[in-house]
Amino acid sequence: xxxxxxxxxxxxxxxxxKLPPMDDTPLERLATxxxxxxxxxxxxxxxxxxxxWVVRDGDALGVWTVADSWKVKRIRxxxxxxxxxxxxxxxxxGDQIPATAEITDREISARYRKLIARKYGIVGRLSLLGxxxxxxxxxxxxxxxxxxx
Length: 149
Hints:
By secondary structure, this protein is α+β, with helices and mostly antiparallel strands. The protein has one domain: Electron Transport, Fmn-binding Protein, Chain A (Pnp Oxidase, Chain A, Roll), CATH 2.30.110. Helices cover 30% and strands 36% of the residues.
């Protein structure tokens, strides 16, 4: 059974090694990364890259962001995006691939907040708390990202 977690394996001299996950798919690689670079497009077609936190949502990726952010406005106007791994500052660390994004409802947005808190620990929980104090729960939304086949 493939679980996506590293598999312990005894290596030379009895050392325990961790092998990469068996389901090493683009979706899994992006979901397990710390940051995801979303490139959305302005009305004139200019690409705008933005680094965000990312979680796995079944066969999609989940992102949490400010509801009135420019990226949400761009995605509302044009759902096709590019996604790829990046560092904290948005510097790409791998190839970007085509995807589509949709703005989620309250229920899914709340689920993404819980997943973000679980994945990012105390930093995630503090960010969520600060956002809730400043904006309330309706001040943020989830984005569901599906990779384009």
